[in-house]
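Field notebook, page 416. I keep forgetting to write these up properly, so this time I am using the form the group agreed on. The chain and the ligand, glutamic acid, are recorded exactly as supplied. Prediction of the bound pose follows.
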Amino acid sequence: MKTLRHALCAVNKSSQQKDDKSMIHHSSISKRASGLKASMTLEISALAQELRKSGKNICSLSAGEPDFDTPDFIVEATKKALEDGITRYGPAAGDPLLRGAIANKLTTINKVHSTKENILITNGGKQAIFNLFQILLDPGDEVLIPSPYWLSYPEITRFAQGKPIFIETSPESGFTLDVDKIELAISPKTKLLILNSPCNPTGKVMKLKELQAIVELLRRHPNIYVVSDEIYEFLISEKEQHISIAQLAEDIKDRIFIVNGFAKAWAMTGWRVGYLHGNETTIKKAIALQSQSTSNVCSFAQKGALAAIQEKPTGIDYMISSYNKRRVMLIKGLKEIDKLLVYQQSGAFYAFPKLINEMPDSLSFCKTALEQEGLAMIPGIAFGQDRCIRLSCSVSDETIIDGIERLKRLVDKLKK
Ligand code: GLU
């Protein structure tokens, strides 16, 4: 069992790998893979669990994972699939019934016309992005990534030999994406723009006007494609509305890809079922890649996903309203802590407060929090914003209260 100090060092080391120019290029590792670092969100969540198992009193607000169990009707449909012998290879593109049901959901709920030929079932949303980038990017192609960003976007870009170009947004402006800044960052090498609304880690939900401005930008730049990561689509405050950019732009729909999955809304993180929606030509290539890499996504897990997507949308309301209440509770608690600046979050299940200047950087702050208070959070540096920290509210009310108390104690100690 790792000691606390060793474990923290391991996380710290992995977070620094990318920038460590002196890192030895081991001859057995390809150049492409040598800079690849492990996902810090997954690492810190696993570390918190490991420390808890070893008997430490840990309060973890780190995991971006629902704390609900997968609903029974999904589990039952999957058991039935196993009993019915759905245990063999299926089409690489995915179960045609599931592809059709997703196309139907996109057409009716999101108002994005889709058929099953536009859909690839993937091993979670992450693999949808991975496959797409392998298909679209040539070496040196630039990918515009609004920052703060979900930490896998730059890694997946680099692994596909693309170049991430970050578009800064600030906590002070509510993490609003400035279209002029995007336009300034465009070069002849720009291939892709990533959108993520509701956003992990900021919780920002893009408004109609912001999306319309991006549609106009895309019309001015006909060589740029968009990936719209909508994995938190349903995790949104009652006051907000999720809008897919694809529903606003029929004329450029072939340049827009949607990534989504079952993990967050249906509490199915371990099932690994996601999907990619896009133009048929690209989807066909992504299917070819899948047939040469992972083959089909687990056959009976797809039957669970089919049951999920065929259920009435209200079937997950109890989880959504619970996250909404807990998000409000977490933010209220954080606002009462001196030395943190807290911005309103209206989507996903995170808070992303800013540490005021006299506090240390986000990695040192989170290390001290884990060492001294047993409080696990994700340092904002993992998402490109070193003055912020990410806390998840997909935990019990008691855990949120406990986490806030530990955080307050830490801030009080640090400000002395
Ligand atoms: N997306 C979640 C998070 O940000 C799960 C971990 C991951 O895949 O990065 O915490």
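OBSERVATIONS:
- The first strand starts at residue 59 and ends at 60.
- The pocket of glutamic acid is lined by residues 39, 41-42, 63-65, 126, 152, 200 (CB under 6 Å).
FOLLOW-UP: compare against the apo run.
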